[in-house]
Every structure is written in structure tokens, then in C-alpha cells.
Amino acid sequence: MKEAASLIERARKYLESSEMLIEKGDNESSVSRSYYAMFFSAEAALLTKEMAFSSHKGVISSFGETFILPGIFPKEMGRWINIAFEKRQLGDYEYTFVISAGEAKEILSNARAFVENVVSYLKKMKAV
């Protein structure tokens, strides 16, 4: 599944970018990259079920219904992606700086765990 592997490669690249942005003090952009790392990973997982969506909300809610509710992934992952989505929205659209370094670091840490959980799943499914 070439698409899933490509999405994971992109997710990992975004995790690296997120870390560099925190070091530069750009917490809002860091959270955006962390969120997208989770988003692309969720898309990769959904591809194993031949599911694709055109909206962020569609990906997030389908990921929850398909993988979180049945217990394939821990509930925390559902919270992580939802929090990151909300914080990304704030960071991208507020006119002031609203994300602290601590929040950005926590979201990056969650994003790393999210991506690695999905990668482990994809390896079991022989999708990457």
C-alpha cells in the first residue's frame, strides 16, 4: 500500500518540522505540524479499511469509529488528535499567540506516540 507508506513518511517529516519550530519559538506552527502528523497517520490507517475522506472532521470521526471505539488503538489517541485539531485551529486563526511552549511540546509528544502506534498497526497489516 504505497499511499499509506507515503503518508507515514510525510507524518515523520512533519514531526521533525514540529520539533524545529518549537526550538524557534513558533509554537502555533509546531502544533499545526504535529496535528498534521497525526492526521496523515490516521488517513494511512483508514486506507487499510479502504476508507478515504475529504474533510478533517471526516477523517477524525471515522478514525475514532473504526479504530478507537473497537479498541484497536487506545482512547488517548482519539483525545490527542481532537485536542491537536482544536489547538491547530486556534493557532492558525487567532490573531494573537495562543499556544504555550509546554502545550506545543505535549502535543508533539502525543503526535510521536500516535504516529508510532499507527506504524506498528500498519506493519502488522503489512501496509508499510
Provide a compact summary of the structure:
The protein has 128 residues and is mainly alpha-helical. It has helices at 2-23, 27-47, 56-68, 75-93, 101-124. The radius of gyration is 14 Å and the shape is globular.
CATH architecture: Up-down Bundle
Discrete helix count: 5
Mean pLDDT: 96
- CATH class type: Mainly Alpha
Helices and strands, in N-to-C order? HHHHH
Count of DSSP strands: 0
Class of secondary structure makeup? mainly alpha
CATH third-level topology: Four Helix Bundle (Hemerythrin (Met), subunit A)
What is the number of independent domains? 1
- Termini, distance in Å? 7 Å
Portion of residues within helices? over 70%
Uncertain ranges? none
